[in-house]
Design a protein that fits this description.
There is one protein chain. This protein has 122 residues and is α+β, with helices and mostly antiparallel strands. The chain folds into 2 domains: 1-48 and 95-111, Gamma-glutamyltranspeptidase, small (S) subunit (Glutamine Phosphoribosylpyrophosphate, subunit 1, domain 1); 50-92, no CATH class. Helix content is 23%, strand content 34%. The protein is built from 3 helices and 7 strands. The strands form 2 sheets. It has a 4-stranded antiparallel β-sheet. The radius of gyration is 15 Å and the shape is elongated.
């Protein structure tokens, strides 16, 4: 799934994710990190992610979340009644993302450590 974020007809962010049914969740999480929290593209991609309802044995009933989100987050989700499966630190279940941001004339790329790839420019 790809997206292009613009402001005043200027492209600011090109962002793409893979991950089947979780793509919409991964898009929102990454773009929120950039737009709402002001993170750079690489940091936004590397932040812990979660997925709910993705195909698998826990589909539709379990929040699957990367361990780096922290025990406090997991405890609070469980306190609120969610079934939670804690994944590895950079889990493939939370998709892969890559993107480019533009600030003025500067382009910055980011690649997901959950998969193969690199951000390169020329």
């Amino acid at each position: 799934m790809t997206s292009l974020v613009t402001r005043d007809e200027e492209a600011l962010v090109a962002y793409a994710t893979s991950g089947g049914d979780g793509q919409a969740m991964f898009q929102v999480q990454g773009l929120s990190n950039i737009i709402d929290h002001g993170l750079g593209i690489q940091e936004a991609i590397e932040r812990p992610r979660f997925v709910w309802g993705r195909p698998g044995p826990e589909a539709g009933v379990t929040v699957q979340i990367e361990a780096r989100a922290g025990g406090g987050v997991v405890d609070e989700l469980r306190r609120r009644g969610h079934a939670v499966r804690v994944l590895g630190d950079f889990a493939h279940e939370t998709g892969h993302a890559h993107g480019i941001t533009r600030r003025g004339c500067t382009l910055t790329g980011g690649a997901d450590p959950r998969g193969d790839g690199a951000a390169l420019g020329f």
